């Protein structure tokens, strides 16, 4: 799922996208954690793989689920639900769970994030993103780039579906620098 040559790379961080210079469109990988919808930049993703057995590691951060052997390469798996403190009663990963393997260029090591399900790869117009929600000064909230608003039809009524767009590089920065 890497960018094709000649395609513009969408910048996602506030530092790279100062106010007034928002992208005209964004491409994201959408996924589910608990009951909420999230997205990360498409260009931060190498691939999506099915859930597999994860080998636990001793003396690691609570949200480091363990490691897997992905085609001969050891890949560290981060439980994103645990990292974001999302509790929905389902702590055990199931067969519908997916692992989003992040691009080595952003992590400098092999890292995958465990999510409940990957729903789609989508393109949104810049006007569909509300960046004001990311202006909080809290450390955890600073990993939120914005909220993507999508119109969906539910029983013949149009309703806004909200997708939390996160900066995965910032959220996991402490992990891949210490792994």
Explain this structure.
By secondary structure, the chain is mainly beta. It has one domain (25-178): OB fold (Dihydrolipoamide Acetyltransferase, E2P) (Beta Barrel). The protein is built from 4 helices and 11 strands; from the N terminus they run βββββαβαβββββαα. The longest helix is centred in the last third of the chain and has 6 residues, at 173-178. The protein is globular, with a radius of gyration of 16 Å. The two termini are 24 Å apart. Residues 1-19 have low confidence and may be disordered.
Number of helices: 4
Main β-sheet, spatial strand arrangement: 8-1-2-11-10-9
Mean pLDDT: 82
Overall tally of structural domains:
1
Q: What's the CATH superfamily, by name?
A: CheA-289, Domain 4
Strand content: 35-45%
Question: How do the strands and helices of this protein lay out in sequence?
Answer:
Elements: E1 25-33, E2 36-41, E3 45-50, E4 64-70, E5 73-79, H1 80-83, E6 98-102, H2 104-107, E7 111-115, E8 117-125, E9 129-130, E10 144-154, E11 157-166, H3 168-171, H4 173-178
Parallel strand pairs: 2-11, 5-7
Antiparallel strand pairs: 1-2, 1-8, 3-6, 4-5, 6-7, 9-10, 10-11
């Amino acid at each position: 799922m890497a960018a094709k040559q000649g395609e513009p790379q969408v910048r996602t961080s506030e530092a790279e996208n100062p106010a007034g210079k928002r992208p005209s469109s964004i491409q994201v990988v959408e996924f589910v954690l608990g009951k909420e919808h999230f997205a990360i930049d498409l260009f931060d993703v190498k691939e999506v793989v099915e859930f597999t057995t994860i080998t636990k590691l001793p003396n690691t951060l609570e949200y480091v689920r363990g490691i897997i052997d992905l085609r001969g390469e050891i890949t560290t798996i981060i439980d994103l639900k645990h990292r974001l403190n999302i509790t929905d009663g389902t702590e055990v990963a199931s067969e519908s769970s997916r692992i989003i393997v992040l691009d080595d260029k952003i992590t400098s090591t092999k890292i995958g994030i465990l999510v409940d399900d990957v729903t789609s790869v989508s393109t949104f117009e810049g006007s569909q993103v509300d960046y004001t929600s990311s202006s909080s000064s809290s450390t955890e909230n600073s990993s939120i780039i914005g909220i993507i608003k999508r119109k969906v039809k539910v029983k013949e009524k149009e309703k806004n579906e909200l997708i939390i767009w996160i900066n995965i590089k910032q959220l996991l920065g402490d992990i891949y620098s210490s792994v």
